[in-house]
From TrEMBL, chains B, C:
Protein name (Swiss-Prot/TrEMBL): Amino acid ABC transporter permease
Membrane topology: Multi-pass membrane protein
CDD domains attached to this UniProt entry: TM_PBP2
Annotated PROSITE patterns: ABC_TM1 (PS50928)
InterPro entries: AA_ABC_transptr_permease_3TM, ArtM/GltK/GlnP/TcyL/YhdX-like, MetI-like, MetI-like_sf
Native organism taxonomy: Bacteria, Bacillati, Bacillota, Bacilli, Lactobacillales
TrEMBL record, chains D, E:
Family: Belongs to the ABC transporter superfamily.
Keywords: Amino-acid transport, ATP-binding, Cell membrane, Membrane, Nucleotide-binding, Transport
Record-linked PROSITE patterns: ABC_TRANSPORTER_1, ABC_TRANSPORTER_2
Any Pfam family: ABC_tran
Topology in membrane: Peripheral membrane protein
Domain of life: Bacteria
Name of the protein in question: Amino acid ABC transporter ATP-binding protein
Subcellular location: Cell membrane
Amino acid sequence: GSSSSSSSKGDTVDSELVSKGKLTVGLEGTYAPYSYRANGKLTGFEVDLSKAIAKKLGLTADFKPTKWDSLIQGVGSGRFDISLNNITETPERAKAYSFSTPYVYSRYVLITKKGNKDITKIADIKGKKTADATGSDNEALAKKFGATVVPSQEFTTSLQLVKDGRADATINAVSAWSTYAKTEDTSAWTATEIPSSDVPAAKIAALLNKKSTALTKAVNKAIKELREDGTLTKLSKQYFNADITEDK
Amino acid sequence: MVQQIFNEYLPNMIKAGLQYTIPIAVVSFILGLILALLVALARISQLGGAFKIVKGISSFYVWLFRSTPLLVQLFIVYFGLPYLKIAGIFPDGIKLDPVVAGIITFSLNTGAYCSETIRAAILSIPTGQWEAAFAIGMKRSLVLRRIILPQALRTAVPPLSNSFIGLVKDTSLAASITLVEMFQVSQQYAGENYQPLMMYSLVALLYAVICTILTWLQSYLEKVTSKHITAGEGGAN
Amino acid sequence: MVQQIFNEYLPNMIKAGLQYTIPIAVVSFILGLILALLVALARISQLGGAFKIVKGISSFYVWLFRSTPLLVQLFIVYFGLPYLKIAGIFPDGIKLDPVVAGIITFSLNTGAYCSETIRAAILSIPTGQWEAAFAIGMKRSLVLRRIILPQALRTAVPPLSNSFIGLVKDTSLAASITLVEMFQVSQQYAGENYQPLMMYSLVALLYAVICTILTWLQSYLEKVTSKHITAGEGGAN
Amino acid sequence: MLKLSHVNKTFGETPVLKDLSTEFPEQQTTVVLGPSGSGKSTMLRSLNLLERPESGIYDCDDLQIDFAKPITSKTTLEVRQRTEMVFQSFNLFPHFSVLQNVIEGPVHVLHQSKDAATKEALTLLDSVGLLDKADAYPVELSGGQSQRVAIARSLAMHPQYILLDEPTSALDPELELEVLKVLLAIHDQNQSMIIVTHNMAFAQRVANKILFIENGDALYDGPTDGFFHSTNDRIKSFIDSMTFSI
Amino acid sequence: MLKLSHVNKTFGETPVLKDLSTEFPEQQTTVVLGPSGSGKSTMLRSLNLLERPESGIYDCDDLQIDFAKPITSKTTLEVRQRTEMVFQSFNLFPHFSVLQNVIEGPVHVLHQSKDAATKEALTLLDSVGLLDKADAYPVELSGGQSQRVAIARSLAMHPQYILLDEPTSALDPELELEVLKVLLAIHDQNQSMIIVTHNMAFAQRVANKILFIENGDALYDGPTDGFFHSTNDRIKSFIDSMTFSI
Ligand SMILES: Nc1ncnc2c1ncn2[C@@H]1O[C@H](COP(=O)(O)OP(=O)(O)OP(=O)(O)O)[C@@H](O)[C@H]1O
Ligand SMILES: Nc1ncnc2c1ncn2[C@@H]1O[C@H](COP(=O)(O)OP(=O)(O)OP(=O)(O)O)[C@@H](O)[C@H]1O
Ligand SMILES: [Mg+2]
Ligand SMILES: [Mg+2]
């Protein structure tokens, strides 16, 4: 009967894993500092975090770099156990997927072309064009504030669009911007952090399959332990130069 | 969900299709065909001298656009040309509107493929047709215009139609240069509802409908244009 | 930067090309060709009865894969098939390895296009060849194998080569099913060094090199295979 | 002996063979004459089952075929082994050399050994004067040479009957001559042949029997002399037009 | 009058025309005979500048062309308006109706009005017996009909000379006859013609002059009677082989 099949499933973490002994992680691998390629190797905050979570679960992390749509669908189709890709929890997404407890509270930055006096705060983007990645919460936010979204595939493209005057502004995570600013020339833009009074920080969490109840629990426990033993803060400082793991 | 598909997802995808996918494909194909014709004519031309440079450029163009991915071509035209700053003419680089950039790139791309098709079609017309036209005193340009091209274009209908169908599907890459065409709309919905598989399948359905209609049109066009033409010359038993 | 291009970017892109792009393209093309041949034969077959179902399936397959975007096909095979749970056989759905899923999809896709090419090539062989073979008492299958296919495949070399070149470029879509092929590597570098335009151009260069080599191979192959064949039947003046 | 009785064949609405009955004596050469479109090719192709008439009986020695009934593929193959067709447009296999063209049937249909087939093929090529072209490809041959290869190819199958459909009408007169000479030699060896031709001089020289078809039916079916001295107006005007006297 | 003097033409390494000199009298029919590959077509095509010999002089009435020098396109067009070519394979324009085929040159090259051209075209089609086919397309015509349209097409250009390269060798004898009759009628109107043919009976009937080419040179160049009663062995054996007497 149906009752036996539903109760026998998802009892243990092991039975929920895509492949035995491994935590299969979906991510883009093209998004610094969360996950990116340095010296030919996959690295980044979420890469290290995944490894740490896997270790707590007694597993090794197996990374599957892919496109944005694919890392969502990968969890849904049971190809990945979990996806970590700066994903924001929203009520709509929670209908289809489980989310772990947040591991980062991401604040937003509003970036405009240097000298743009029209846009100084998030409310100013109403009726303006913003460049944001399709499906991202940056896009959702821009729409919420009445902007027309120019879809772009990645952060550098968005910056390029603003610089070229093809969009008036772009919204992104403070973390992504500061990483960019570390190595690149930013003199073409003005960046304004959006205060939490205007927009609360986004809860960044891992995406899991709704069926993976045991795994979700185990991941939550691992994140809690990593937070308590200071690993989370250490990684945050290493990659973001700040502790953004608490909702301040 | 089912309700949303019919009330929201499909209507908006179709809207994007009518607004971007189809107009861009149609305009690019027309421009591409004109370009293809000119390039094909340049490449089969027997003019020498300075015209050899035109021929060389034509061959290079065809090679370039056939041997690099379309996505890269789009990217370079849209994001690369702004770097091309020419003092006096383009002091700020060439910044094209995405629709314009898309149409230019798609035209250039499909033009390269179609020029090969048209060239092959012209070369497939039996030399007897050229000679018969020369014999009644026609000049090369007149022979081409009145005798060869009308026949060649008929031969070229099936492969050109295939190129057009391919182009319709390729417009999905226009998302990378900020155009919200059909495929991009499906991705936007996937970003909201986290159901990419479902959204992709919906948009695939729309592509299939468009392509099927185009295939019908193709058979119709083939039938109409080849009405009086069979293999080679008619009448020889 | 220049140093990095030669020490890091290009070598790693080439590595990805040798590891994924080329093997996947080659294997898929071989499988696709076999499939294309079977489908073409099924569609031109004159068998009736239950075989009509095979013909119907073949036509449907060709239609389906030619009229939907390849990206969607990849997505459905990799992410969609796991939903296909068949009690007893696939209780957990069909979960294919990404390389396998890629090869299957690319084979099916290129097979659909190539089957049309092969079918047209078979139909282009003059009926006289069939009749001459029938007249010496050959059975249909023997005629196909010894007389028609060898000639048809030669006619088909140019369009098949084009399909193969197209396939090489299309493998760039495999990134959506977690295969880090050449194009994806260029995007990874772009995510790190914030130079997408440059990275795309580099990878375009590699594609251009591959395609150019393949084009040379094609002309060579054409020359070799059509050595004894000219238009239609030789010898008639 | 080959024999057709009451054979009917239509293409679409057009009747092409109308209740045609005739026979083709063994070890003799039957020449089929008639205006264009009268049904000569259709009849000849029916003998090799390349066309399927709708009704009528076809006797092929001990084998009897009723065209009104389905024909098994075994019967078809049997008939095709007893009859060989030589086409106006030669239809050599362009991807095979001359020798390969000739041994294709013996090796792959009659299952002879390749060596034996090659040996015989070379003898046959010699007899049509093309031994030196054994390794050439069809594209390198003139029309006359191509047709002689096609004749050798059909002889290699040791058919009871060779059927030839205007074997020389694609050829220039001088090339025609070389093919006709070969056919005469085969005729002199008492090989059964059925030849459709427009060459009256050749017909008169080679035929043991003339079959004159008009409008899908036999208007004349008898000895050669009788035909060329016929008093029938239609036959006389046909012979006149064929020998060009305006 | 057309006149060739010391014309040489090679294809690759092979000399095809060797110091050929001859002339083609006006208002007469010159028949060109010779074995296959002797250079007949090459010579005829040179008269219409479809081939360009390497050296020699070509006089076309007042116009003189030195083949060793470049030929302006103006001269080319001039020569092509004085001479019209009729091809063995007809080369009708398949996408035009019969009438359109005939008026194509008059309208687009001679810039006649469409009405005037149509009127004359219908007269010409009538004279070749094809008035009822004016609106048909080439694919619907028999070979003989196609060739008659091609002849009408060339007549519509009012050329000084009509050049015909084996106009009937793609046709069955009965269809050949209908074309030859049309040519005879044109001959009787004193139209200057140059005809390459293999039909000896027709050659004898129509020729005012015979040009026999062998190996790229004129072996005989003179009156018709002299040719058919020549004592030259080569000519005698050629005539024999053409009339099939094994
Ligand atoms: N496959 C076909 N489909 C339709 N009609 C055909 C077909 N083959 C032959 N016919 C018609 O059948 C009639 C007889 O044709 P057939 O080829 O037997 O004549 P033929 O006597 O051989 O003529 P020819 O001397 O021109 O070769 C013609 O009217 C022809 O148009
Ligand atoms: N375009 C060409 N390229 C190379 N060789 C050619 C070409 N055209 C003709 N030839 C050669 O030139 C020679 C003369 O050819 P031509 O066609 O003038 O002969 P012909 O007298 O008309 O013969 P036929 O009676 O067979 O028509 C032949 O050996 C032929 O192979
Ligand atoms: Mg016939
Ligand atoms: Mg010739």
